Amino acid sequence: MAPANKSDTKAAKDAAAWMFNVLTSVGIIMVNKALMSSHSFSFATTLTGLHFATTTFMTLVFKWLGYIQASHLPLSELIKFVLFANLSIVGMNVSLMWNSVGFYQIAKLCMIPVSCLLEVVFDKIRYSRATKLSIVVVLIGVAICTVTDVSVNTKGLIAATIAVWSTSLQQYYVHFLQKKYSLGSFNLLGHTAPTQAASLLILGPFMDYWLTNKRVDTYDYNVTAVFLIILSCTIAVGTNLSQFICIGRFTAVSFQVLGHMKTILVLILGFFFFGKEGLNLHVVFGMILAVLGMIWYGRASSKPGGKERSYSLPIDKSQKHGLLSKSGEHNNKV
User: Fewer Cβ close by (within 10 Å): the C or N end of the chain?
Assistant: First the structure.
């Protein structure tokens, strides 16, 4: 009975971590949509810097309370991670500005095959045919739901390429660093959030001015807008933490595949709250196809040979003071 109980406990924790990520991610999208659409706060990069500043404050509080133990992350690894993460944020914003919505969605879908490639090359992971086909089904379903007009230009293609690769590398690196240096999600956030906050708060106002031709310091900070900014930053703490937890428990590919469930939920909530103009038969079909693909992926990747690593990532034995992530005790199957 013990193995079964252990398996049930892991499944329950995985489901809880995933639901935490879904709720916070969908919540922050809705808050940001209200902030940017209804109150014209178009400073996305600066807002992300505020998100990481709030997350940094949270990690300092938890460290003071003793919930985060001392740990070590080499400076070279920290610099690489922050570089990938910041390129991802800036790349996504620029890609959305320079590309049509349709091509922007296609670029986001490309993150799954890129993440698969990174796992195959660096982790020697092998996927079964069923797992590969399930990923294709998910991609087709989400594409049917979200991709409309598609127009491509040279600078937009460059921005999308940078955004896709940097985002995939950043998500792969979350899992890699947690495994290699035995870092828990709080520990990794404690190392990365301050650097990201500082760099984005310095870079953000200039990037936002370039993208929108508006200055963040001249914005009309009324009571409602300030409340939404604070709410967005508060939810972002959970979003950042849940992302690290999920990638630590799963992998970047699983996180991307299951992440499209958030896309489906956002579409459904959008239709529910903002009208049903875009809801038609092919969108509903795409949603159903995507959900079935996600279920198939979960079943296929959990079977023997569905998704296997030929060797384990090395553990840095010098990290004696690191907080051992519970995710390190499990394999990376869904």
Answer: N
